[in-house]
Write a structure and sequence with these properties.
The chain is of the alpha/beta class. It has helices spanning 42-54, 69-76, 109-123, 143-155, 168-177, 194-197, 199-205, 229-240, 243-247, 252-261, 276-284, 291-305, and strands at residues 3-6, 12-17, 24-26, 28-31, 59-61, 85-90, 92-97, 100-105, 128-134, 159-165, 182-186, 208-212, 268-272. The model is unreliable at 1-10 (pLDDT under 50).
Length: 306
Amino acid sequence: MGSGRTDTEGNLMNLRPLGKTGLQVSEIGLGAAQIGDRQLSEKKAADVLNAALDVGINFIDTAAMYGISEERIGKHISGRQDEYIVATKCGDYQVEEAGSWRVVKDYSPDGITKTIDESRRKLNMDVIDIVQFHGLPGKDDDSEAAFEALLEAKEKGWTRFVGLSQDGQAGADAAQKWPLDTQEFTYNILFQEADQVMFPTLRDRQMGAIIKRPISNAVYLMPERPNGDFSGIPWDRAQQFPLSQIAADIPLVDFALLFTLAHPDVSTAFIGTTNVDHLIANASVSGQLSEDIVSTAKSTWTKTFG
């Protein structure tokens, strides 16, 4: 499944190439959105970030709009920068108004440039490893100018690589049009559309595949439908998909993660958490699913949703 390395705790973490970037990333990454919660204590944020590095995770996903996530990464682990690769996102950010915070979308060239520069300051990095758009520019934005501003940040040396976080055909089309290095998108046991829509393009372009929601928020463990579409729609799918039958005696979260990692084009799959025990458990998932089980999961998904 990729080359391995042993970290200071003696745990083995597989590393995979991130497309044509030359970077080797841990196949399991840390999603740092929850780290940005202002209600989360500094100690807990520091514990999770350091624990991730201790177990061999070297890929961290964040964004300018994830509260104070970037600041906390810069504050608590910038002294260990040689141990991790960080991918942040621009195109939106948070502003405080009347004591509350709201998200502002800004894909103007000036907004993109300022957001990336601010991320450099918060992350305590002169050169960010990866900067991605947090979705595509809107219909009222100048998309050409936006992408040119992102690419200019790479040319100026503010970031080593650039990419896009976007699911579906629109994301694949952007990957075809622009010289991007990475793509972040959804792929998991319940949402396998990327097999047809995204992976062929990334393979052709030699782009790194960064997978979000690789365990589909573990909705298959929830007895009742969660509020909202973010987890509600995956929960609906879980009711139609015989995951327990296919997984047999493998714990469902482990099975879901191993399924995602079984895809040969996946570079890294990140999971968000503020719980150190959960982080260690995720990082400890090991082994490979048999080709027969992966094939069954894919064919069952196609029959059910395809």
